Amino acid sequence: MIKWEFSPNIKKTFIDYHVVSMNEPEFAFSQMYQHQNRKRMPNDNYPLIKLDYSLDLDNSFEKVLYERKTCIGQFKNKQNINQKFISKFCNLAFIGGNRRGRTYPSGGAQYNIRIYILFNEKNVHQEMVEFGNIGELNCDTGDLMIKKYQPWEEVKTAFIQEYLTDTTQFSIVLSIDIQSISKKYHDIAYKLVQQEAGHIGQNIQLVSQYLGIQSVPLGGFYDTVLSNMINEKQTVLYAFLLG
User: Fold this and answer.
1) Of 63-72, 90-99, 103-112, 180-189, where does mean pLDDT reach its minimum?
2) I need a surface site. Which of 141, 181, 224, 239 has the fewest CB within 10 A?
3) pLDDT value of position 6
């Protein structure tokens, strides 16, 4: 008698989906994508409601939204990246001070995304790299756990846009344990962690602008290299260069 299996292997499905989107150094030339200019969206023949509004640049929030842009060249490094700066950055972008819950939403408040900060030891205050330059943020306790040291000359090889990395002061890497994310939400877990990474990413960019540094959100990294650099059990979803 044949026993039918009606429950799909959800974990294998989204792991396979993730793997096909990975960048790897040995495939770099075959994975280069042809640039296409974006076409402006037409209004066609629909009735239109004109959305006129002049941003109030004297309002700090509106000014941050207006001025946020991606750095496309060398980072200016206008700020001293020390403990005080990183503490403020992390509380605004992630932790939320003493408030209940973090400053970004997460499906079911599971907070599956793990947040790593990698410091370029040449461009930050030495107090940030005294015990190492790769740390993981513990938003529950409000601490940055310094896990190891790896020379920035090695760290930067994980990023495809190497021309940006020399002047970077630090990088933020968002990752998951892809083997365990399906415990609560099963088939939609992968979608939810991608959404969570997007929420965190928007915070990173806006807080960067607010605190006077530049940011670059990146999909351009070598997945296995960067994942192994932070933790072999982690799968990187999103990365940022800042300075």
Assistant:
1) 180-189
2) 141
3) 47
Give the pLDDT confidence score for residue 3 in this predicted structure: 55
- List the structure tokens of 166: 């020399």
pLDDT at 51 over 80: yes
Long-range contacts of 138-147 (CB under 8 A, 24+ apart): 139/94, 139/95, 139/102, 139/111, 139/115, 142/91, 142/95, 144/86, 144/90, 144/117, 147/230, 147/231
| Separation of alpha carbons 3 and 12, rounded Å | 21
Q: What is the mean pLDDT of residues 208-217?
A: 97
The tokens of 165 are what? Answer: 């990395």
Tell me which residue has tokens 């206008």. 78
Q: What is the pTM of this model?
A: 0.90
* Angle in degrees, 0-180, between the axes of helices 189-210 and 10-19, rounded to the nearest 10: 50
10 Å CB burial of residue 120 (0-12, 13-18, 19+) is buried
In the chain, the domains with their CATH numbers are 10-31+61-242 (3.40.109.10)
Cα–Cα distance list, 89 to 63, 84, 101, 109 (Å) = 18, 9, 17, 21
